[in-house]
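Table 4 source record.
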Amino acid sequence: SKNENGNVLTTESRNDVETIVRSYGVGKDVQTTALAILVWVETDYQKFEKNVLNGINFILSIQCGRSWDCSQSNTLALMAIVAYEKKKAPPQNLQQEGSICLVTPDNTEHKKILPKNLSEQCKF
């Protein structure tokens, strides 16, 4: 791709290009990967399954503690992981309840049991 001056962007120069939410570096990489995963999962999962798995592994490998670089990265990464998990194991195949733990910036943990039927809303 090229920048606004028509110069070809290299891997090094792409780090200087921000996303629409002004993310750089790791945050940008997480957001871009998560968006690609969301598209692949929704369009043709079987065709892009290897890409989805590589993307999920990448996102998980650069997780810092319990989060990623910024709020947008956290949101998109979690959306991609949930979309992947739903595609990998559709709700009708679930045999037991699951749980989720949300940790807020003040390190407060909010735990919730997820029902077998994931179409039901879970509110914290």
